[in-house]
Design brief:
Elements lengths: L3 E2 L9 H12 L16 H18 L5 E6 L2 H13 L6 E6 L2 H10 L4 E7 L20 E5 L1 E2 L4 E2 L10 E4 L16 E5 L10 E6 L16 H6 L9 H16 L2 H22 L3 E2 L11 E6 L5 H10 L2 E2 L10 E4 L6 H13 L1
Parallel strand pairs: 1-13, 3-4, 3-5, 5-8, 8-9
Antiparallel strand pairs: 2-10, 6-7, 9-10, 11-12, 12-14
Helix pairs in contact: 1-6, 2-6, 3-4, 7-9
The protein binds pyridoxal-5'-phosphate.
Pyridoxal-5'-phosphate binds next to α3.
Family: Belongs to the class-V pyridoxal-phosphate-dependent aminotransferase family. SerC subfamily.
Keywords: Amino-acid biosynthesis, Aminotransferase, Cytoplasm, Pyridoxal phosphate, Pyridoxine biosynthesis, Serine biosynthesis, Transferase
InterPro entries: Aminotrans_V_dom, Aminotrans_V_PyrdxlP_BS, Pser_aminoTfrase, PyrdxlP-dep_Trfase, PyrdxlP-dep_Trfase_major, PyrdxlP-dep_Trfase_small
Length: 352
């Protein structure tokens, strides 16, 4: 039986995408070859790559000022690439909004390349809200934030206002709703939450912010080199890009991000409604900051945690255990999560 998979990442993708991807592993587009044995420079794969980039541009409405790259190394490599490509070698300074484990890791990496100012933090209450009303100095090389906090279940509902270059880690909410890409210097996302398999990292970057640091950047970390090479400075993650392309086609067929956002809102509302009305459960996140992608919740009686997980397991529900730093439970309800699966979880909660 196919399980209801609430994993935070790598995570669920549409069943149709899995079907097509498995076919391409055996015989890619009737070429008699597997997708993963052809050259990344073959016209067949270049067409896949071009289509993936074109779909990202179309679905996210990426302006002509920005480039789209598929790199490797995950969001974790972007923590340092953003810093090394944007922080000035003399007096480099960057502002970070610290909303949890991932922003904290990004901030730590940036410290290797210049001064980091933590302009706001939610650490005082274990990151259960999004800081508001803070000031961002205007003399920084860039401002970094994490748009959705996968572990703590919080999400920025507004883009932070700043005149500085804005950088966002959107690993866990990219393609979940429309975004005004023109406001950003860099958007990056590990594919494995809402886009495709682990191995590809999507980077959207405004070209004119590059080349101003005065430092020598190693080739593999230099965005300008990857732009020039159209993500093929080295062998790109061909399978991950292909599956991402299939998922982007699927998103487009769904009606794009407006339609997808509406479904995501409905799914999240159903689940939060159950948590708020079921006397056995609570959610400690500030209501206005609740993530529509990662829903964290606790049993009021934590001694029943194992019993609840067993009941979930019985109903074919997998991966709802919370992150070790938060405890309790986490249901990740990315784009591909059907409303029927959310309902299956709610049914278990109602009976519990
Ligand atoms: C999963 C995740 C990461 C880590 O991504 P990797 O691809 O494993 O490096 C970083 N940031 C956020 C917000 C995430 O959800």
């Amino acid at each position: 039986m196919k399980k209801h998979n609430f994993s935070a990442g790598p995570s669920i993708l549409p069943q149709e995408v899995f079907q097509k991807a498995s076919q391409a592993i055996l015989d890619f587009d009737n070429t008699g070859l597997s997708l993963i044995e052809i050259s990344h420079r073959s016209k067949e794969f270049v067409a896949v790559y071009d289509k993936a980039v074109a779909l990202v541009k179309e679905i996210l409405n990426v302006p002509a000022t920005h480039e789209v790259l598929f790199l490797q190394g995950g969001a974790s490599t972007q923590f340092l690439m953003t810093a090394i490509n944007l922080m000035k070698v003399d007096g480099g300074k960057a502002a970070y909004i610290n909303t949890g484990a991932w922003s904290n890791k990004a901030l730590k990496e940036a410290k290797n390349f210049g001064e980091v100012i933590e302009v706001a933090s939610s650490a005082d209450t274990n990151h259960n809200y999004i800081p508001k009303g803070f000031n961002i100095p205007s003399d920084v090389d860039y401002v970094h934030y994490t748009s959705n906090n996968t572990i703590f279940g919080t999400q920025f509902k507004e883009t932070p206002e700043t005149d500085a270059v804005l950088v966002a880690d959107m690993s866990s909410d990219i393609f979940s709703k429309p975004v005004d890409v023109s406001k950003f210097g860099i958007i990056y996302a590990g594919a494995q939450k809402n886009l495709g398999p682990a191995g590809a990292t999507l980077v959207i970057i405004k070209k004119d912010i590059l080349g101003n640091t005065g430092r020598t950047i190693p080739s593999m970390l230099d965005y300008q080199i990857h732009i020039k090479g159209e993500s093929m400075f080295n062998t790109p993650p061909v399978f991950a890009i292909y599956v991402s392309m299939l998922n982007l086609e699927y998103m487009k067929a769904q009606g794009g991000l407006e339609a997808i956002a509406k479904k995501n809102e409905e799914k999240a509302a159903l689940l939060y409604n159950e948590i708020d009305n079921n006397p056995s459960f609570i959610n400690n996140v500030a209501k206005e900051d609740r993530s529509l992608m990662n829903v964290v919740f606790l049993l009021k009686d934590a001694s029943k945690d194992a019993e609840f997980l067993a009941a979930c397991n019985e109903a074919g529900i997998s991966n709802v255990k919370g992150h070790r730093s938060v405890g309790g439970f986490r249901a990740s309800i990315y784009n591909a999560m059907p409303i029927e699966s959310v309902q299956a979880l709610i049914d278990v909660m109602k009976k519990f």
